[in-house]
Amino acid sequence: MSSTAQVPPPLLPPASAPRSTGSPVAGFLIDLGLAASILFGLSLIAGLGWGLYRGLMVGMEAAAPGGQAPDPDNLATLLGQPGPLAQILMALVATGGAALILYFWRRRASTAERESSHRALKAPSTWGWTLLVATLVIIGSNGIAFLARQAGVEPVPTNLDLMSRAVDQFPVFLMLFAVLLAPAYEELLFRRVLFGRLLQADRPALGMLLSSLAFALVHEIPGTSANGPLEIAQLWLIYGGMGAAFCWLYQRTGTLWAPIAAHALNNAVALGVLMVFGIPQ
């Protein structure tokens, strides 16, 4: 695809700019470690917040007229487990919070980068590439799943049960989360912060590899589902390929809005299929 509008690459520093003497790979690993630590910490805080909320509800019910003091042995049963809405909100706080903290702390865009990104938004080629990449990601993901199914490999994504329950109970909020919020904070973290560091250091291939591996791992962590090694490998291939495609789109267009839009289109199609057809049996 081509356009008469020429968009200069905004992600690489000017030739006259002094390059950092530190290792970009070390910087990437520091960013990754910080992201994991912040995500874990915010997950704990969100979990504690939910626990305090449920404890308050249980206490208010016990204090109401006719209420009974909760049995300490059954306290865990009374508190229960977070429902789909609570789990989605906790994920939003943890992952979204980690993305924002890392962006403002470690990889905040300069004025020149923002201006260049705005120019890229006006280029017709930006949206042509976005639509092409989103289409190829959807076709590629479903193609991999189809071929794996023929070989008897049928993984169940870790978040599928959560999504199916949220579709039934909170469809509007789920659409807002999956199509708008999740693509924005995931692209901010994995493409702008992680991939962007190595891209700025003229190491795009390495950045694409490492950030895509991280993207795949965070979406399917071994031991968190009943998937075996082959099923996990298939999901990693799909998520890793998706991450690499969005990295390439970010580099090609020069604006983070392009992979955010492609990611949103992919999620919208997947969510639409889930809403219409449900979980395949």
UniProtKB/TrEMBL annotation:
Q: Which residues form the signal peptide?
A: none
Tell me if Nucleus is a UniProt keyword of this record.
no
Tell me the ranges covered by the CAAX prenyl protease 2/Lysostaphin resistance protein A-like domain, including all copies: 170-269
Q: Which residues form a coiled coil?
A: none
- Locate the transmembrane regions by residue number: 28-53, 85-105, 126-148, 168-185, 205-221, 233-250, 257-279
Spell out the molecular function terms from Gene Ontology.
endopeptidase activity; metallopeptidase activity
Record keywords, A-Z = Hydrolase, Membrane, Metalloprotease, Protease, Transmembrane, Transmembrane helix
Q: Alphabetically, which GO biological process terms does the record hold?
A: CAAX-box protein maturation; proteolysis
Q: Please verify whether the record's keywords include Protease.
A: yes
What name does this protein carry? Answer: CPBP family intramembrane metalloprotease
Q: Which organism is it from?
A: Stenotrophomonas tumulicola
